[in-house]
Automatic annotation (TrEMBL):
It comes from Brachybacterium alimentarium. This is Aminoglycoside phosphotransferase domain-containing protein. Residues 42-210 form the Aminoglycoside phosphotransferase domain. InterPro entries: Aminoglycoside_PTrfase, Kinase-like_dom_sf. It comes from the Bacteria. Pfam families: APH (PF01636).
Length: 327
């Protein structure tokens, strides 16, 4: 699992500062699952009953995580209240630490494999997000085409230096896939605030019972619960793009073993609602697949030990989706 910083790693001065924000001493912590960063990702609960989510990191822990946390803070400062996103509470810079504090979103990570009802619930949440953030309320963001476009040209890099284990179906269609990816990049342009890093561990869903994922650890060993619907978290890669960009990225990440989730049919439904040709889904999925085919052969980063395994799994599951759609 990811080796994240925790409350116990914070120096006393930083703990005291966070307890001021919380309104009392910390009496319970809950470390959140998912992600690849060494940055902390914890819900802290104080004796006053307040619960806040905290990300804290130092340059020495991971320079990339520090940069991403700063970028997320900039986006959250301008996020509309109506968006299904936990509100920013504080940004703390103390000594070498950068700390991002938000309201704690209730709920748990989506079930894996995905439940169809939860998948539809999240797609509806992206509609709500788009209603609240069109036109894009955060100035200066790159477009999705600019931020994801270079990644989606992975089949260009594969064609220049084909791996020895390249799937024969891909090898026979490289030129077509390269052209599709370029069309997909163009189709992602627009003026909606997009998350642009959509996957299951950046979503929290309340299942109706209000249970928090895994249960919050209290000093006395009991558990806490919260209530809500869907929260979209981790905004470090936010950009400006099409109203279908996040939904297609989410669907590209869903493993649909046996086809029970009808991912391609759901992608078509999203495109139909927004009056876009269904071929847009094929083109976007091809570009995302190209990234993972290329990235699955990159050198392993020891500071992000789970990332390479994730890339290989995404490559294999998305290949099946694209092959189905291509046919």
């Amino acid at each position: 699992m990811t080796l994240r910083l925790t409350w116990s790693d914070f120096p006393d001065r930083l703990r005291a500062r966070l307890e001021e924000v919380l309104g009392g001493p910390v009496v319970g912590t809950h470390s959140c699952r998912g992600g690849f960063s060494s940055s902390s990702a914890e819900i802290l609960r104080s004796s006053a009953g307040r619960r806040l989510f905290v990300k804290a990191v130092r340059e020495q822990d991971n320079p990339g995580s520090m940069r991403l946390n700063r970028a997320e803070a900039t986006v959250l400062e301008q996020m509309p209240d109506a968006a299904p996103v936990p509100a920013l509470v504080a940004v703390i810079e103390q000594d070498e630490w950068f700390v991002l504090v938000t309201e704690a979103a209730p709920g748990e990570l989506p079930a894996e494999p995905w439940d169809p009802a939860q998948l539809d619930q999240v797609l509806a949440a992206f509609d709500a997000l788009q209603d609240a953030t069109t036109p894009c309320p955060v100035p200066g963001l790159p477009s999705v085409a600019e931020s994801l476009g270079p990644d989606m040209l992975g089949f260009d890099r594969v064609a220049e230096d084909p791996p020895t284990n390249l799937d024969p179906w891909l090898a026979a269609r490289l030129d077509e896939l390269r052209a599709a990816a370029r069309r997909g990049i163009h189709a992602l342009d627009g003026d909606t605030l997009c998350h642009s890093d959509v996957r299951a561990d950046n979503l929290l869903i309340v299942d109706g019972s209000g249970h928090i994922d895994g249960g919050e650890v209290n000093i006395d060993g009991s558990a806490s619960i919260g209530r809500g619907e869907v929260s979209i978290v981790d905004w470090a890669w936010a950009s400006r793009g099409s109203r279908v960009a996040d939904a297609l990225q989410l669907l590209s990440s869903v493993e649909d073993v046996g086809g029970t989730l009808a991912v391609n049919a759901r992608a078509d439904a999203v495109l139909d609602v927004h009056g876009l040709p269904r071929k847009v889904g094929s083109d976007v999925f091809a570009g995302i697949l190209g990234f993972f085919v290329d990235a699955s052969r990159w050198p392993r980063d020891p500071s992000l030990p789970l990332l390479q395994q994730h890339r290989i799994q995404r490559r294999d599951s998305l290949l099946a989706l694209v092959r189905e759609r291509w046919a």
